[in-house]
Model the fold of this input.
Amino acid sequence: MKLSTFGSALVGLAVAHASTVEYSAVTGYFLQDEDSTDASTFDYTAENFGLINRSYPADQKLKNQASLTQWERFHHQVVKLNEESAKNVEYKVLFLGRHGEGWHNAAETYYGTPAWNCYWAELNGNSTATWADASLTENGIQQAQKAHDFWASQIKSQNIHTPDAYYVSPLTRALQTANYTFTNLALPHGATPFKPTVKELFREGISIHTCDHRRNASYIKSLFPAWRLEDGFVENDPFWNGVEGETSDAEDVRSATALNEVFFGKGGKVQHEGAFVSVTSHSGEISSILRVVGHRTFRLNTGAVIPVLVKAVKSGKGEIGSVTSSPSWTVSPHCTEPPVSSVTACVCPSSAVPVTTPLVTGA
Done:
């Protein structure tokens, strides 16, 4: 078990007399937990989502364990962990899914990362593609469909317990990925229907790139009118300004706040109902969540999924404190014209000195 002390670090950021949370990744259940598993080559669809073939302490209480699949026994193990834990402790399995390839991913590959970061990413697109709040490419759609097909096979062959709750980033590529992944799955009888909650704080790390600027709430509702925008979700993006970007520390504060709400609700009550949770998000945000829960670094390819068993311990009797401050953001100088060199580093033309003002005012 790897412990994260991030929750206790929030004490200085929270209101007085509030409860705090300590998260830990409970390892030993998934191949992704192990240092020997190479994230760059790992294929979750070839490895049963990475679930390790092993016995569990809770197996001893199963009379028919020989007839159950690995996923059925694992679900039983998680249920028992919650039943036998203290009232202030909650275990959840987070299925962290990265969106499929977006047009911003394709553009970064085309231009190269240095040129992308210092000029092209600050634009809305070029003559052939738009990457502001990027949509999925055809390859990205296929990656999401691959996830859909794998969930379908796991439901049929493994009787996997499908998510009890679905959350999705408000950025278009994540919305589309969740839709392609979970819509029209033949869910088991009694399973939670796929009607996800769009959650602001599960968005990508916020940079000056236009791909990190979400469209308005009305646009999201027009795409998926049956989906729920979380309480307090505002019409226009409240964070992106094209000038400043989050640091890793600032993103981790945001991720911890989101996890607090998933595990304990905005009122701070332990959410024992539903231990399996799907979060469709982004590479940077998933990396942040893994840091918060103390899991080892595991960078996902586009469209990939990592399940993590997480233990949350709430300390204190009050509500979980609202974050009242966070680490500072940083400005990011960039070129005003295409760079003249960007093989290993970005070099702006001599006539276009780096600036910190946005190249576009909207996305």
Summary: The first helix runs from residue 6 to 9. Strands lie at 2-3, 20-25, 89-98, 165-168, 197-198, 228-229, 244-245, 276-281, 305-315, 330-331. DSSP finds nine helices and ten strands in the chain.
